[in-house]
Amino acid sequence: MAPRDYYQILGVSQGAGDAELKKAYRQLAMQFHPDKNPGDKNSEERFKEVSEAYAVLSDPDKRAHYDRFGSAPSTGAGGGFEGGFGTLFEDIFENFFSSAGGGRRSRSRAMRGEDLQYELKITLEDAAAGLDTKIQIPRLERCETCKGSGSEPGTQKTTCDACQGHGEVRMSHGFLTVARPCPRCGGEGQLNKSPCKNCRGEGRLRGEHVLSVKIPPGIDDGMQLRLSGEGSSGVNGGPAGDLYVLVRIRDHAIFTRHGTDLLCDLPVSFTQLALGAEVEVPVLSGTETLKIVPGSQPHQVLRLRGKGMPRLRERGNGDACYRLLLEVPQKLSAGQREALAAFESASKEQRGPLASAFIERMKKLLG
Asked: What is the secondary structure of 188-219 as a DSSP string?
């Protein structure tokens, strides 16, 4: 099934701001609300579709995910829009079943801009050393022509004469008073009779912004950096949102990270385990010498202290850890076979502790 276009469902452009989204949603919710269309299954489905679209696009994180991937973020087995429908239906009931007392003030209040998220992929070496980089962020920025007001320079919005700036008109049906968004101003409480030609009255324009980002040494995969005020511009003079830089660390060819430790599988031979050896092993900054003591066992883990990842905002590093993997040759030369046969013959009377314990358990089992 092709993904639904939430912008098309609400009838708004991809750059629509909060005010435009809310205006479009309220008008459609009023039109298709089940209470206004009893028994109409098509209206009920349309109402659910409109509510779902608004729940995603009105949430900065979900909208950023939708704009990037074309689908709403998953919310687990239960599905739905967590946290969204409470506000959503409160908004519906507030519009449909408001009490008779107290009109609503103008909707043209200052609103904070949307928070944004940017996914930054770095290498394990970058995460260890720290990184200064630049990123380019698409965001809504204040229209400099109208200074964010949405009106042509030298003009200003006027109070709506239909709702007297309340943004609502009220109708009484017996004991019930129904509040509806003002059809003249769309619930804004003000009329923009001279919209800015540059931003078409939105007060914001979609643009690209280049930012410098400092990644601290020791950062882990999935951590976020918050850049205050670097999200989308606010509406009607409201503050800008924040930008969250989500750090993703690419898989490494050799090391697997476990906290501040780095784990490497190191293939070794039987003679290196039995006789001991000094081998050259990789570390993030180059190579080091690792000492394998005589009698080391397969899957034993040896450490190089302080050669792992830095501790984030603390002193010291974790360890580089090497798991010894015994590599058995698949083909033997005649000399190798003869030498191993001699070793086996000489070892028959000298069992190791594991073999001896196993034989004892077998004897007990067999009676």
From this structure: SSEE-SSB-TTTTTSSEEEEEEEEEEEEPTT-
